[in-house]
Write a structure and sequence with these properties.
Elements: H1 9-17, E1 20-24, E2 29-31, E3 39-45, E4 48-53, E5 59-65, E6 70-71, E7 85-88, E8 92-98, H2 102-108, H3 110-136, H4 139-154, E9 155-158, E10 161-164, H5 170-177, H6 181-193, E11 197-200, E12 203-206, H7 209-217, H8 225-233
Antiparallel strand pairs: 1-8, 2-7, 3-6, 3-8, 4-5, 4-7, 9-10, 10-12, 11-12
């Protein structure tokens, strides 16, 4: 894993000596929102979803965790508790360390510290992007962006198209994009009729990624017929 690739064997042995193995079955939580943030984690295998419940009781899927990612780093943000729950969507395996070791851990492993800082920055950027999307974009555009992010993170090329390689439901997509299951089902059914995607139980395959990119860019990004002709002529 890139997180630990540059470590000498002795330093890696020391890190593993204090690590605790965390095995998660589907539906198990590594931790729950509001619990004391007493550990931080690195995912070795599987996939997890990060879920937050708003004060109004609405559930929001914040993001998904893929192998090699750090998660549960409330200590890095100087939070005493976890801001969201992290739940396995498939059989998963992680390593964890006491949060009290975070400062020493990052001080001794500069590559890990840089990666963790980049992770925090990326999550802040993702949060800002999602706020902008919810404020300015139509639902179909938001759904297209969400699926493109998922295939960028965990897409696998198959003869059918690009498959998101972990279980995901239409309800999950709705909770990622601030809409309803009914709306996501309507959009996905329309896309299926147009040959953009196929979907089954907890499975989404993108068959026409270029068309999905155009939907994600929105109508303001689409070239007019005249502009398209000019592009061809040039």
């Amino acid at each position: 894993m890139d997180l630990f690739r540059s470590l000498p064997d002795a330093d890696l042995d020391a890190i593993l000596h204090t690590a605790q193995v965390c095995r998660l079955s589907v539906g198990d939580a590594a931790f729950r929102q509001g619990e004391v943030a007493d550990r931080f984690f690195v995912l070795l295998n599987g996939h997890l979803k990060v879920v937050q419940v708003t004060p109004d009781g609405e559930q929001v899927v914040v993001r998904y965790v893929s192998p090699g990612e750090v998660f549960g780093i409330a200590r890095a943000m100087r939070r005493p508790d976890y801001p969201a729950s992290t739940i396995a969507v498939q059989e998963s395996l992680a390593l964890s360390w006491p949060s009290t070791e975070w400062d020493q851990f990052t001080a001794k492993n500069l590559h890990f510290a840089a990666n963790a800082l980049q992770t925090v920055g990326q999550r802040l950027q993702d949060a800002h992007t999602r706020i902008q999307e919810l404020s300015t974009e139509e639902v179909e555009q938001r759904v297209a962006r969400a699926i493109l992010r998922l295939i960028d993170q965990s897409g696998q090329q198959t003869p059918e198209g690009i498959v998101i390689d972990f279980p995901i439901t239409r309800q999950d997509i709705a909770e990622m994009t601030g809409t309803t299951l009914h709306t996501v089902s309507r959009i996905m059914s329309a896309w299926k009729d147009r040959g953009l995607v196929t979907s089954g139980r907890k499975r989404i395959v993108v068959c026409a990624v270029d068309d999905l990119i155009r939907l994600a860019e929105g109508p303001q990004q689409a070239p007019t017929p005249r502009a398209a002709r000019a592009k061809l002529e040039n």
